[in-house]
Design brief:
There is one protein chain. By secondary structure, this protein is an alpha/beta fold. 59% of the residues lie in helices and 7% in strands. The chain is built from 15 helices and five strands. Strands 2-3-4-1-5 form a five-stranded parallel sheet, covered by helices on one side. Helix 2 packs antiparallel against helix 3, helix 11 packs antiparallel against helix 12 and helix 14 packs antiparallel against helix 15. The protein is globular. It holds the Pfam family DNA_pol3_delta2. One of its GO terms (molecular function) is DNA-directed DNA polymerase activity. Its EC number is 2.7.7.7. It is an enzyme of class 2 (transferase). Keywords: Nucleotidyltransferase, Transferase.
């Protein structure tokens, strides 16, 4: 499958993008949408690789073997620029800088490709800066915007982009990808694909990180331990601690790798005091990492809420006897007992409480206070 191997269950999308990559005049602006875990960014990078592929036969572009394919996929191709923010939203200055870069001619390939991850993180004023660049792009520039749904992008942007809709891949396809690409144990891959609800990134992390699996187990078992308000308050603090630990684990290796790469690039000495210029650059990197940590914690808290919701989704499925596969099949006995002690109406109310907490967490509400209010509602 060449560059498309990391897109399980997306046959129609692959066919659409393969045809576009084979064209000599592909559409200049694209909008990739799909639920979390559907592989929007993977699809954007694969499409960029196919557009730049060195195969002389247009029908064979996206081979996955040539230098352009490899560099586009691993993030080192000079003609593929990935626009991502580590903050809660893009700033106008960030977008202006990328719009200016989009004016440059390709350095070696046929196209200069601008990938915008999380395009839904743009405020209206910021999006307007991008609008003109998409309306009147240079002849060799292609924009690829990624967002959860078309509604998350302003209609003025949406109307100027060719849509590509990705779907949540089938659980079995995700499990097979983990076995084939990461060498995962088949049983563990099936478990990770199921409990992540086919979110490729989350499933991959669950396969690779035993501690991440333990943290998730603590989250989904939490409703089983709630007996009173004091339990709820303790549980709320535990959820925040889990989210912080998860965010720290996700950031630690990346932060250290960035630090080592910067010191190497600047020619820093192995021992002794660092020169002032290098210390200044290092301090700037540390400030950027601190800003990114805020978003990482926010994303981790949201993931905690999603995992907690799966407990009550399973309870509701048992109460209504829908016959649906349980996400947390490993807890079937506990889920059945819990379902017998409550009603579907109570379960829906608890799911609403989690949804409300997720909404509060998207604002500046204290995570501990939001979690405490939610945990009390789960009693």
């Amino acid at each position: 499958m060449g560059v498309w191997t990391d897109l399980p269950g997306q046959g129609a999308v692959i066919e659409q993008l393969s045809r576009a990559a084979a064209s000599e005049r592909p559409t200049h602006a694209w909008l990739f949408t799909g639920p979390p875990g559907s592989g929007r960014t993977n699809a954007a990078r694969a499409f960029a690789a196919a557009l730049l592929c060195e195969q002389p036969d247009p029908a064979a572009r996206g081979c996955g073997r040539c230098r352009s394919c490899h560099t586009a996929l691993n993030g080192s191709n000079a003609d593929v620029m990935v626009m991502v923010t580590e903050n809660v939203s893009f700033t106008i200055q960030e977008v202006r800088e990328w719009v200016a870069k989009a004016q440059d001619k390709p350095s070696s390939g046929r196209w200069r490709i601008m990938i915008v991850e999380d395009a839904d993180r743009m405020a209206e004023r910021t999006t307007n800066v991008l609008l003109k660049a998409i309306e009147e792009p240079p002849p060799r520039t292609i924009w690829i915007l990624c967002a959860p749904s078309p509604a998350d992008v302003l209609v003025t942007i949406r109307s100027r982009c060719r849509p590509v809709g990705l779907r949540t891949p089938p659980q079995q396809d995700v499990a097979e990808l983990l076995v084939r690409r990461d060498g995962a144990d088949p049983a563990l891959a099936e478990f990770a694909a199921r409990v992540s609800q086919s979110h490729i990134g989350v499933a991959r992390r669950l396969v690779a990180d035993e501690e991440a699996r333990r943290r998730r187990d603590r989250i989904v078992r939490l409703p089983l331990r709630l007996r009173g308000v004091s339990d709820a308050v303790i549980a709320a603090g535990e959820l925040v601690d889990i989210a912080n630990a998860d965010a720290a684990a996700a950031s630690e290796a990346r932060n250290e790798a960035e630090r080592e790469a910067l010191l190497h690039a600047l020619g820093a000495p192995d021992t002794g005091t660092l020169p002032p210029a290098i210390r200044s650059q290092l301090k700037q990197l540390e400030e950027e990492q601190k800003r990114r940590a805020k978003r990482t914690v926010s994303d981790s808290l949201d993931r905690v809420m999603i995992d907690l919701t799966t407990f009550f989704r399973d309870v509701l499925a048992l109460q209504l006897d829908t016959g649906a596969q349980l996400i947390n099949e490993q807890l079937r006995g506990e889920l059945e007992a819990y379902a017998g002690r409550s009603t579907p109406e109570q379960t829906l109310g608890r799911m609403d409480a989690i949804a409300e907490a997720r909404q509060r967490l998207s604002t500046n509400v204290s995570p501990v206070l939001a979690m405490e209010a939610m945990a009390v509602s789960l009693l």
